[in-house]
UniProtKB/TrEMBL annotation:
Zn(2+) 2 binds at residues 143, 170, 223. Pathway: Pyrimidine metabolism; UMP biosynthesis via de novo pathway; (S)-dihydroorotate from bicarbonate: step 3/3. Signal peptide: none annotated. GO terms for molecular function: allantoinase activity; dihydroorotase activity; zinc ion binding. This is Dihydroorotase. The gene is pyrC. It catalyses: (S)-dihydroorotate + H2O = N-carbamoyl-L-aspartate + H(+). Substrate binds at residues 54-56, 86, 268, 299. Binds 2 Zn(2+) ions per subunit. Its cofactor is Zn(2+). GO terms for biological process: 'de novo' UMP biosynthetic process; purine nucleobase catabolic process. Residues 43-227 form the Dihydroorotase catalytic domain. SUPFAM superfamilies: Composite domain of metallo-dependent hydrolases, Metallo-dependent hydrolases. It comes from Candidatus Cryptobacteroides avistercoris.
Length: 415
């Protein structure tokens, strides 16, 4: 059966045959039954890679499943996602990780690469067997909680350095939280909330960078949100420390001035100050912030209906990431389109060694985008089970028309 696909572009076509990029150019001799898709006027780019998503399965399928989460990923233009380990059971041994891998093999519509935990049960005490897990996972993380004991993190980094694998750290010093749940800023003070200090993030990054420098391990900082955090990372990179980092769309586009008494504005880390947001944009421009990841964190409607104080931490992001960033940063001249694509595709793959160049004889993982189409984000139409986003109702440009994984369309916008 012929499953060839020809993307008919402006002066240059892309022929996909047997799941790979067969050629780029024009005048191809097509086999009978080749499907042709008109992509003239559209951007065709390498599929996006999200190195920080929560797919909630196994253990929390009332929030999201691997099927619904990967469908949402495909709709958002992502062909690869890396799934965090705050699951039940925690993927802290080969047997537990295999439970997650079984569901991935059965249900995923895009590539899903799971994280393994750093510590058993993500309790921050006893290290997992890194060697037994490294060939089955993309990296190691206790995401959802920071490793509080510096000696435990030192041993984890020593083991990661020995095996040449990545520690991806959720950086949060619990001793500095004091029951907070939004940023300790103006909105917090004026509305009687409890605040989370910026120091609770950057203080643990500071500790980990010193340990990383000592051990030489590959260290990745998750969801960076503060100006001081990026300063520390910028200085460490200048010293040759093997550190990379990500931030999320909401930290680049929103700040605590945008807060409302609504659970869709509650996530961890919280929305920080306008000054922090500007520092993150500058760090994205100069490469200190390597990548953009969504931290897609779906919850049930009931868990997100309890206001800022009591709602669960986390918002969805897979279906909104590109359009909100393209509209809020590229069209406003804050960053270039090339830098946005690099941060959403090339940099994540480079950091985590996920090879997939958009070139001949390579798997065809592609995203087709109409940059000129204007529409309104409607969380009610999401494919994700999680509908909580601070961008609901935002007018955006940049519609994902098609996502192709290994030569097969896994998402097509109905026109």
């Amino acid at each position: 059966m012929n499953n060839d696909l020809l993307l008919k572009g402006d002066g240059q076509d892309i022929l996909i045959r047997d799941g790979i990029v067969f050629g780029r150019g024009s005048g191809f001799e097509l086999r009978p039954g080749t499907r042709t898709v008109d992509v003239r006027g559209c951007l065709v780019t390498r599929g996006f890679a999200d190195i920080h998503v929560h797919l909630r399965e196994p253990g929390y399928s009332y929030k999201e499943t691997i099927l619904t989460g990967t469908r949402a990923a495909a709709r958002g233009g992502f062909t690869t996602v890396c799934a965090m380990p705050n699951l039940d059971p925690v993927p802290d041994c080969p047997e537990n990780l295999e439970k997650e891998l079984e569901i991935i093999r059965r249900d995923a519509v895009v590539e899903v690469l799971p994280y393994a935990a750093i510590t058993k049960g993500r309790k921050g005490c006893e290290l997992v067997d890194f060697a037994a897990l490294q060939d089955r996972c993309v990296a190691f993380s206790d995401d959802g909680s920071g490793v509080q004991d510096g000696e435990v993190m030192l041993k984890a980094m020593q083991e990661a350095a020995r095996l040449d694998c990545i520690i991806a750290a959720h950086c949060e010093d619990n001793s500095l939280l004091h029951g907070g749940y939004i940023h300790d800023g103006r909105y917090c003070a004026e509305h009687g909330h409890r605040g989370i200090s910026a120091e609770s993030e950057w203080r643990q990054i500071e500790r980990d960078l010193e340990l990383c420098e000592r051990t030489g391990c590959r260290y990745h900082v998750c969801h960076v949100s503060t100006a001081r955090s990026v300063e520390l990372i910028r200085e460490a990179k200048a010293r040759g420390v093997r550190v990379s980092c990500e931030t999320a769309p909401h930290y680049l586009l929103l700040c605590d001035d945008d807060l409302r008494e609504d659970g869709r504005f509650k996530m961890n880390p919280p929305l920080r100050s306008a000054e922090d947001r500007e520092a993150l944009i500058e760090a994205l421009r100069d490469g200190t912030v390597d990548a953009i990841a969504t931290d897609h964190a779906p919850h049930s409607a009931a868990e997100k209906a309890l206001g800022l104080r009591d709602s669960a931490m986390g918002v969805t992001g897979l279906e909104t990431a590109f359009p909100v960033l393209y509209t809020g940063l590229v069209l406003k001249g804050r960053i270039s389109l090339g830098r946005l694509l690099e941060a959403m595709s090339d940099a994540p793959r480079r950091i985590f060694r996920l090879d997939n160049p958009l070139s001949e004889s390579e798997p065809a993982d592609l995203t087709v985008i109409d940059l000129n189409e204007k529409y309104t984000i409607d969380s009610g139409s999401f494919l994700s089970m999680g509908r909580s986003t601070p961008f609901d109702g935002m007018e955006v440009y940049g519609r994902i028309l098609m996502t192709i994984k290994d030569g097969e369309p896994v998402w097509e916008e109905k026109r």
